[in-house]
Design goal:
It contains twelve helices and 47 strands. The relative contact order is 0.10. It has 754 residues and is mainly β. About 3% of the residues have low confidence.
């Protein structure tokens, strides 16, 4: 009897068996696609039978006239319930699915060959507990602390064995491997571990040093290649010979056999990673108050223990943001020993370190904490003048902070040396007591007024509501929900704090309760919600300081209102708290200087002076002056330092300015490949002369003799040399976390000849 595709039974069965029976049974599932890759049905395998009923398919799209031999069938283990969400063939690759060829026999029955042992051995799963801790170094009270990071999402992934994928990697990728390893041209540095806290400032210093690098100092391609290869594992002559063979099968086999040895090489080429480091996400877990995470996962029993790769997300401003995702080749826990800790140190600037599980403020207390990470007790509230170190021109330190900022290059900060203004988009952090909100204290409001201009000349101004970035303030929380297959999942949501108009007052913000399940938000407790920022230390508003009328001295005021929107005054003075100066983790009763209308026992509100500066730096390097006139050099770039046979006076000049003098500069001169010329270099704050350079009208200038500049290249007045000048003018403002980089820089060169 001949085969007739039109006569096959649309309700059919396929016998499923193994080429070699697995050591233990596990559930199987089958997915049936048409030839265009459209999913028709999925069914579980029952008693080795996979049964489909195509009569249940909706009409249309060719569903009624199907040649059964054109079906695409995939069979995979069903241990992971998430597999039922698959709707395309690409996703099935993550489950190592078997795609047999369907045959129509003489009786119009459908059959397939047994599942091959080379594939099914990857389907057997073993259990493994993955655990660890996520933390970050924080500078607290002039000391470094390794603090846990809570509520971070840890993604646990398993790297698929190369033996499974090696034959599926396209030939054109395999063909690129020999040249990339035998004739490397490196464009990506070897990833290095995150430096500890003691090296943070060293890293900034290195950045500054690199920025001043001698532009005449170069290295050859051969030198760079030799230095880089010296850091990589040595490859044996046999491996090199196999790579050079040109035989793709030999190259594949060599890659598979020497996979562990080649990981450091793979780090240089990200385009390889999707081919050589296929991984499947096993679980997503959340860190607890101690920064810890753990999850029992299942891995392929075949071969060694699981190869684990981890990446981390953190909720920043309501958006889950990747804060740790290092290159796979050099950051995989190969043959992970189940149950041992994987400790991860984050460096992302916006990751918080307030993970206290039961920290709270009692009663109706209100704690004004910080601007970003800058403690309010380190913002100077009094007027006094003091020059910068090594310079003589003083400036008023009122409204400035002594706090460091992320992104400093060479601005040194010391406690109580108030030198830095604020700019950009600061956030005002506060903490509220566990008895808030209540009918007596329910809302807060931030207002601002200008006290003086950038030159600290007083101006008349009245309070105005501080406008929030985005027009409103929301408080974000996570909650748990059950997905379609019964698994727990996380999702973010938020509640609007304001602004609201209540009674006769506008721009009011709800004081959030300690937990989102509490009034007035009443998020269902069954979803286990928790705030992203705990109420005892949260951002109450973020504002754009560039929206202020001008740079200058401003006063920020925090007022409290009852539930009816009435302004509260004469509150108990002990209600208001600020951080201790020597340890911001401890509170103290707010000093009078930070209070509105303080008496011996009462106060109306918080008041805080803050200097705002968003000025743009300017850098410029001018032509070398010879005997007081700009050097007349030809297009070859050489300057004659002996016009008419007499050695000239040489003057170097440059511009380093900032509208309000809140900037530092570094000017470096280097000679050929000899190195720096210290006598010609300078640095300081742009407010004053520095390093022998005289400041006049924003221009720094200094005079030299030829021998002072040429030194070892002088050669009795017959020598010549090339010089490079680099100038960086760096703004000092901070948004409380980052330095506001309104910087400028310039590079120039000149050459001297007799």
């Amino acid at each position: 009897m001949s085969k007739n595709p039109e006569d096959f039974d649309r309700k059919f069965k396929i016998y499923v068996d193994f080429e070699k029976p697995p050591e233990r049974e596990f559930p199987l599932i089958g997915f049936l696609f048409n030839c265009r890759g459209i999913l028709l049905q999925w069914q579980y395998v029952k008693d080795k039978i996979l049964e489909f009923n195509l009569d249940k398919l909706p009409p249309g799209n060719g569903n009624r006239n199907i040649d059964p031999e054109q079906f695409r069938l995939f069979i995979a283990p069903a241990s992971d319930k998430k597999i039922t969400r698959v709707n395309n063939t690409q996703e099935l690759q993550n489950y190592k699915a078997y795609e047999p060829i369907i045959r129509l026999d003489a009786n119009n029955g459908l059959s397939i060959l047994p599942i091959p042992e080379v594939l099914s051995r990857f389907w057997l799963k073993c259990k493994c507990r993955v655990s660890g801790k996520v933390s970050k170094w924080f500078n607290v009270g002039n000391t470094w602390e390794d603090r846990p990071v809570c509520r971070a999402r840890v993604h646990i992934c398993e790297i698929d064995p190369i033996l499974y994928w090696i034959n599926k990697i396209p030939d054109h990728i395999i063909a690129k491997v020999p040249d990339a390893i035998l004739k490397p041209v490196f464009k990506f540095p070897i990833p290095i571990p995150d430096p500890g806290p003691l090296h943070q400032f060293e890293r900034f210093s290195m950045m500054a040093a690199e920025n001043q690098e001698n532009i005449f100092k170069t290295r050859s391609i051969a030198e760079i290649r030799k230095e880089t290869i010296s850091k990589l594992p040595e490859l044996s002559p046999e491996i090199k010979q196999q790579f050079a063979s040109g035989n793709l099968n030999i190259i594949r086999e060599t890659l598979a056999k020497n996979y562990a040895l080649l990981h450091p090489w793979f780090c240089f080429w990200p385009w390889w990673w999707p081919y050589f480091y296929r991984c499947k996400e096993l679980a997503v877990v959340e860190t607890n108050a101690a920064g810890r995470f753990e999850k029992s996962v299942y891995y392929n029993c075949f071969g060694d223990k699981p190869d684990i790769y981890i990446w981390v997300e953190y909720l920043i401003n309501g958006v889950w943001t990747t804060v740790y995702k290092p290159p796979k080749p050099c950051n995989i826990y190969w043959n992970y020993a189940c149950g041992t800790d994987i400790n991860i140190h984050l460096t992302h600037e916006m990751v918080a370190g307030n993970c206290c599980c039961d920290c709270h403020l009692p009663g109706e207390l209100v704690w004004l904490r910080s601007v970003g990470n800058t403690s309010v007790s380190h913002i100077n509230q009094t007027s006094y003048s003091q020059p910068p170190p090594g310079q003589t021109v003083p400036y008023d330190r009122i409204g400035l902070t002594d706090a460091p900022a992320i992104g400093d290059w060479f601005l040194a900060t010391t406690t109580d040396d108030y030198k830095r203004p604020f700019g950009g988009q600061p956030q005002l952090f506060m903490g509220f007591g566990t008895s808030l909100p209540n009918s007596n204290i329910y809302y807060y409001r931030w207002s601002y007024r200008q006290i003086a201009d950038a030159q600290l000349v007083n101006v008349g101004d009245s309070y105005k509501p501080l406008p929030p970035i985005g027009g409103e303030v929301r408080k974000w929380y996570d909650y748990i929900y059950i997905d379609s297959v019964g698994d727990e999942q996380w999702a973010p949501d938020s509640k609007k704090l304001g602004p609201f108009t209540v009674g006769t007052n506008d721009s009011l913000y709800i004081i959030p309760p300690e937990l989102p399940t509490m009034a007035p938000f009443n998020v269902p407790a069954s979803s286990h919600p928790h705030w992203h920022q705990q109420t005892y230390n949260m951002s109450t508003i973020a504002f754009n300081s560039k929206g202020f009328p001008e740079d200058g001295l401003y006063e920020l005021k925090l007022e409290l209102f009852d539930q009816a929107g009435n302004l509260l005054q004469n509150l108990p003075k002990a209600t208001f708290k600020t951080p201790r100066h020597n340890n911001a983790g401890f509170s103290e009763n707010a000093p009078d200087i930070l209070l509105e209308n303080p008496t011996a026992t009462t106060a109306d509100a918080f008041n805080m002076l803050i200097r705002i500066d968003n000025g743009q730096c300017t850098a410029g390097i001018f032509t070398l002056n010879v005997n007081g006139n700009p050097a007349a050099s030809n297009c070859c770039g050489f300057v004659n330092y002996k016009p008419d046979g007499v050695e000239a006076d040489l003057e170097i000049s440059f511009e380093a300015t900032h509208p309000n003098n809140f900037a530092v500069f570094r000017f470096n001169v280097v000679k050929g490949t000899c190195g720096g010329v210290p006598i010609a270099s300078a640095g300081g704050m742009v407010i004053d002369s520095a390093s022998g350079y005289t400041l006049g009208g924003g221009i720094y200038s200094k005079h030299f003799t030829p021998i002072q500049l040429l030194d070892e290249c002088y050669m009795n007045g017959m020598g010549k040399a090339a010089f490079a000048e680099t100038l960086n003018v760096i703004s000092m403002a901070t948004d409380g976390i980052f330095r506001v980089a309104n910087d400028d820089n310039e590079v120039a060169a000149f050459a001297l000849e007799p």
